């Protein structure tokens, strides 16, 4: 009836208000969190076909004094809306380079960039100073960007990508297959690697269509001389299937969860060339 509908609507409205209020509170705290040193980086290995660590992906964590660890899936979008992602992203890049500089020289670090950072900061300058201050070789830094960056690939963004490449930094497309861009376009923009999103990996090896998509991505990327990394690899069956499809590198809980910097240092020193 009409009355029930109205109650339902009011209930929905109250719930909305609560959620908006919670977001507002979180965004206020987010702004101070950087100054209070509440962010830290975790690192997840990216391994070769043989299982050797080739790189670590830096993944930010927010250690909130009351809430505990807040997921980046919850606070990164908020950081993007509020602009906090700019100073936060700068800190992440600097911190990741400093930590990686202590690893054996054949191990790289992959850092996630938000599309907002392309629009509202001088990324080239930022990357240059992070490399300089840490002493990390440019070839050991990989920048992961999502396909959404290309929806608005302005001349300024393209110029920034070219300059980063000229500096020797590697570029990866994150979450490949969930957005809109084509591989040939990415190749033209000089991307080195693509990361196949975990939604495609999840159903392997059972899902026929899933395997067909992954195979198509790997074949085309390989012919364009791009490296393919599969993320979200959780089972031995997935690993075997991905390798049989020709995937070059793997990442996922099967090998390691993201770990604190101290643990990554230990893993790096055990598995790097010395
Ligand atoms: P992403 O870049 O796609 O990162 C991969 C996510 O998958 C990470 O979640 C990682 O912990 C998780 N993962 C890794 N292996 C497995 C697996 O085998 N199974 C499953 N189910 N999940 C796995 P996390 O750390 O919660 O990060 C979520 C997202 O937040 C990231 O997705 C990225 O988009 C964003 N993010 C994280 N750190 C940063 C950062 O430093 N800067 C920016 N701009 N975004 C970040
Ligand atoms: Ca990533
Ligand atoms: Ca990803
Ligand atoms: Ca993702």
TrEMBL record:
Residue ranges of every copy of the EAL domain listed in the record: 23-272
Entry superkingdom: Bacteria
Segments passing through the bilayer: none
Name of the protein in question: Signaling protein
Part of the intact protein present: 57 to 330 of 337
